[in-house]
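pinned: reference chain
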Amino acid sequence: MKEEQRTRISKRLSRHLRHDPAAIGLTLDPAGWAEVDTLLACLARHGAPVTRAELAEVVTHNAKRRFAFDDTGTRIRASQGHSVAVDLELTATTPPAVLYHGTATRFAAAIFAEGLRPMRRHAVHLSATVDTAVAVGTRHGKPLVLRVDAAAMAAAGHEFQVSANGVWLTASVPPEFLTTAG
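pinned: its structure tokens
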């Protein structure tokens, strides 16, 4: 499959497994899982047929590992980034001392005044590397990489989880834990 087709399918999966399952008549269980056969049938009914092999290729080759099959291969879900109510059943985890957040420079004043908030998502997304934060920030404009003092946040009682694809999640990041990276 060509990269452009994988990207198109990935974007469609993101929409329906993270934000708007009802648009194609899909229902996610409380943990965000959907039956693979049901997902494929819903996509086909709405003019976007995807084969099981194509779905597997998108899941396997997605650089950001946005999606995961369950152990049986019969269910699929988005690894994080939901705007619909789901409980990914992630446990609290001690974060590395420093995490990073990529955004656009135009948001700097608001972030340093208010901190990082989840906006339309359930949690703030953080990365373990500057490179990942740069890539995320570039999607929104001229990138700004923020350094998050995760050790101090954890010591102050803030909780962190890490998703199946390595994205660190927390409810919010108050401004006192933020500086610019590098």
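why pinned: The domain at 3-78 is CATH 1.10.10.970 (Arc Repressor Mutant, subunit A). The longest strand covers residues 98-104.
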